[in-house]
């Protein structure tokens, strides 16, 4: 496998830092670009001594600085994971998703037009789909996201398609399910553990606890992404990356409680949704990525158990 000069945008974050570990281990040269909005130096500091690792603190919304970075470093491919991945924050401040999800994409694409880099892997989301009782496949439509996060990811996908046509770029769009594992900064496991550490006697669960979704472990996700990129070669490649099975929020709470060896009172806020923009139940059709001979090692339940231990 040829060694590449790779940019990981948002590489100090939860998923990006695990991707950096994986690509370094494969012998590639990695540059991590992050502004530390959600990313953390401690996620990547162990890579700092490695001769194939570089870090630059940069706000990728700044198109001029992003262009200079691309021209200077001559990247062969960019993995774009820079984003506001906390849907709750995006609801409170509606510019966050516009700027951190969409405008970073625009800046990176503009930088690619003035450099030799012609390959981009984009971290999208199940949130681009409209709620459906049927398993979501890559061609499910119309695409009517119900969160600002999903809307910004879908807008970015549209720009990726247009830039691919206008500037002969090669694009991989990977739509993640819910991702869990070590180094998480938000999400159901992070929230439950934080709440229970603050008050082990009571656990508030948003909604009715019956929300049911697929959860993929971050290690499976990284292997799924890199396998997909290696084995697809169209101008625009798109796939769901996830697991077939689902787990309810109520069962996740039970796993966290059992692992922490406590017995709190459970309080539900009520309603089928945990928050505005929440899709309480969905599942993935994974035929496309499975046809490439990749499947996640861990089920949703197994992924949750591993992630709970990693975050305690």
Architecture overview:
With 312 residues, the protein is α/β, with parallel strands linked by helices. Helices cover 39% and strands 19% of the residues. The protein contains ten helices and 13 strands. It has helices at 14-25, 63-73, 87-92, 95-113, 148-167, 188-198, 218-231, 249-260, 287-290, 300-311, and strands spanning 5-9, 29-34, 53-57, 77-80, 119-125, 170-176, 178-180, 202-205, 212-213, 215-217, 236-241, 247-248, 265-268. It has a seven-stranded parallel sheet, sandwiched between helices. A two-stranded parallel sheet has the order 7-10. Helix 1 packs across helix 7, helix 6 (188-198) packs across helix 8 and helix 8 crosses helix 10. The longest helix is centred in the middle third of the chain and has 20 residues, at 148-167. The chain is globular, with a radius of gyration of 19 Å. The two termini are 37 Å apart. The mean pLDDT is 95.
In short:
The chain has 312 residues and is α/β, with parallel strands linked by helices.
Could you outline the blueprint of secondary structure elements for this entry?
Blueprint: E1 5-9, H1 14-25, E2 29-34, E3 53-57, H2 63-73, E4 77-80, H3 87-92, H4 95-113, E5 119-125, H5 148-167, E6 170-176, E7 178-180, H6 188-198, E8 202-205, E9 212-213, E10 215-217, H7 218-231, E11 236-241, E12 247-248, H8 249-260, E13 265-268, H9 287-290, H10 300-311
Parallel strand pairs: 1-2, 1-4, 2-3, 4-5, 5-6, 6-11, 7-10, 8-13
Antiparallel strand pairs: 9-12
Helix pairs in contact: 1-7, 2-4, 4-5, 6-8, 8-10
Shape type: globular
Please identify the structural class as seen in this structure.
alpha/beta
The end-to-end distance, rounded to whole angstroms, is 37 Å
Number of strands: 13
Task: Figure out the total of helices.
Answer: 10
**What is the arithmetic mean of pLDDT?**
95
Which percent range fits the helix content?
25-40%
- Poorly predicted tracts of residues: none
* Order of the strands making up the biggest sheet: 3-2-1-4-5-6-11
Strand-residue proportion = 15-25%
- Biggest sheet layout: 7 strands, parallel
Round the Cα radius of gyration to an integer and report it.
19 Å
Q: Note the quaternary state here.
A: single chain
Tell me the series of helices and strands, N- to C-terminal.
EHEEHEHHEHEEHEEEHEEHEHH
């Amino acid at each position: 496998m040829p060694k590449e000069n790779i940019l990981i945008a948002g590489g100090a974050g939860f998923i990006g830092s695990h991707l950096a570990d994986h690509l370094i281990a494969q012998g590639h040269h990695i540059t991590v670009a992050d502004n530390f909005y959600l990313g953390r130096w401690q996620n990547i500091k162990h890579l700092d001594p490695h001769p194939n690792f570089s870090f630059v603190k940069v706000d990728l919304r700044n198109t001029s600085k992003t262009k200079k970075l691309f021209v200077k470093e001559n990247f062969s491919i960019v993995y774009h994971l820079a984003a506001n991945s906390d849907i709750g924050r995006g609801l409170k401040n509606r510019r966050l998703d516009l700027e951190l999800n969409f405008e970073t994409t625009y800046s990176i694409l503009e930088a690619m037009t003035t450099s030799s880099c012609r390959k981009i892997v984009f971290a999208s989301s199940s949130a681009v789909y409209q709620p459906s009782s049927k398993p979501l496949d890559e061609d499910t439509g119309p695409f009517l996201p119900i969160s600002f996060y999903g809307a910004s990811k879908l807008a970015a996908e549209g720009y990726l398609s247009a830039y691919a046509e206008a500037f002969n770029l090669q694009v991989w769009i990977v739509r993640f399910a819910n991702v869990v594992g070590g180094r998480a900064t938000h999400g159901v496991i992070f929230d439950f553990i934080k709440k229970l550490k603050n008050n082990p006697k009571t656990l508030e669960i948003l909604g009715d606890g019956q929300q049911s979704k697929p959860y993929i472990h971050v290690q499976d996700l990284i292997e799924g992404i890199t396998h997909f990129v290696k084995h697809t070669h169209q101008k625009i490649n798109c796939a769901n990356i996830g697991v077939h099975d689902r787990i309810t929020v109520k069962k996740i709470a039970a796993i966290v409680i059992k692992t922490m060896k406590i017995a709190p009172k459970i309080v539900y806020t009520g309603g089928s949704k945990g928050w505005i923009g929440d899709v309480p139940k969905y599942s993935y059709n994974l035929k496309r990525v499975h046809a490439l001979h990749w499947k996640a090692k861990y089920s949703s339940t197994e992924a949750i158990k591993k992630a709970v231990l990693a975050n305690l």
